[in-house]
Structures are given as structure tokens and as C-alpha cells.
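Data availability (excerpt). The following record was deposited with the supplementary files.
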Amino acid sequence: MITGTLYEAGKMMVMQNKWEQKKSTGNINRKEKKELTPQEKELQRYKEQLEETKKGNEYSALYSKIQSGQKLSPAEEDKLKAQDMKAYLDYKADQAEQKAFEEKLKHCKTKDEAQRLKTTKMQSNLSKIKNVENDPYISDSEKLRIARQIQGDTTATAKIFDKFTQSEEYEKMPTEAELQQIRKMQKDAENAAMLSETEDTSQVNEENVSEDIVNENIDETGAKNIVSDKNDRAENLVLDAKSKEKEAINGDDAVMAEMQAIVSKLNKDKETGGTIDVFA
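Predicted structure:
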């Protein structure tokens, strides 16, 4: 019994000494750190690098999506906002402009007007990207970010227009040449009606019957010529429309090619500068 009491007393004394030591060193409630082995340290570094790479890839995917003219999901927008507020604001501004562009297309009166609207926007974007390229006060990394943002907006513009050309609204739109032809035909019809009203058919007599017969033959021949002429003009209108469409497509391709050349140059310049490419 005495031995047990002495043992308990000794145990309590040891615990009291440890408590006093912790109070004096300030290590109360602080767990002792376990020293990692070299293998554990290497594994920890690998896990950290893996996490950083995964995070970098997620943001790179967002930038690449913007560059290709695609829309971000709400969750992706939140990620971009948390990572890069400036890129997020630029993206939202582009989205608003693209929505306005869609509405303007619907209010165009002719196919030519819709085409000019798209060409003007694409040429404006090309001017913007050139200004960014030549701005000495913007870093190479920021130049590349802005250039790719503009490239994405331009790609989205082309996609919006292509989709619009498949719509019923666009199909019903005349070309400007067709519109002019319609107006001319309406004017000719009005003039013909006015001429018919002024003719005095009561004065026709037997002496000019033969002349009328000749005139009828001439009129019949003239009518055939008119029909043939109209057919020729209709074919010319179709060819003209196709020619303009081809020119527009070639022009768009030239704009996109020039933009890509600028983006590639900026990317090379930035890599030469040794900065990290978030778009890679």
C-alpha cells in the first residue's frame, strides 16, 4: 500500500515538473512538431507542385476558352473574377458588346448592311489589337492578355454573324442590288400605269389598224426582250451577291490571320522576356 502511494506521488511530481517547464518556455498546449523524413519532404513538395499545376491548368483553360470566342459558365466566371479581375471585366464588356451586335444585325434592312456591320466591328478590333501591340507602356504579358481577349471577341463576332446568316430573318433580307431593282420595277409600273391612263383609245380608226398590228408584233418582241433582260439582270444579281459574299469571307479570313500573327509575335516576345504564360 505504501509502495503504491509513493509511486503515485512520484508520478505526480514528474507531471508537475513538466507543467512548470512548459509554462516557463511558453509551450503550453503546443504540440511537438514531428520532423519529416527526406522522403516525406519530397512527397510534400510533389503534392504542392501538383496542386499548383492543377490550379494553373484550370485558369489556362478559362483564358483559352475566352480566346476561342466561347462563353464561360457562371462557375467559370466566378473563378476568373477571383483570379483576374481585369480579365473578368474585359470579358463581361465583350459579352455586352456581342449582345448589342446581335440586336443590330436584326435591325439591318439588307444583307449588305449586315455584312458591313460585321466587317466594321472586325476591322475595329484589328485596329485595337495593333494599338496594343505598339503601346510602349504595356508589358509584354499584358499585351498578350489583351490581344487574346480581342481575338476572342472577334472570333465570337464571326460566329454570331454566321449563325445569323442561317436565320429566317436574314433569308428574307434583300441585297441592295435587289432592293434597287425592286424600286426600279415599281417606278416602271407606275410610269406604265400613268401612260395607259393618258392614252386616248377612242381615236383608233381603220387607217391605223394595220399600224397597231405591226406595233403589237413589235410589242410582243419587246416584251420577250424585257423578260430576257430581267432574267439576265436576276442572274447578275445572284452572281454579284455571291461575289460580295466571297470577298467578305476572304476579308474576314485575312483579319483573323493578321490577328493570329500579332498574337503569336506577342507570345514569342513575352516568352523571350522570361514571364509566365498564363495562356499556355
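Summary of structural features: The mean pLDDT is 76.
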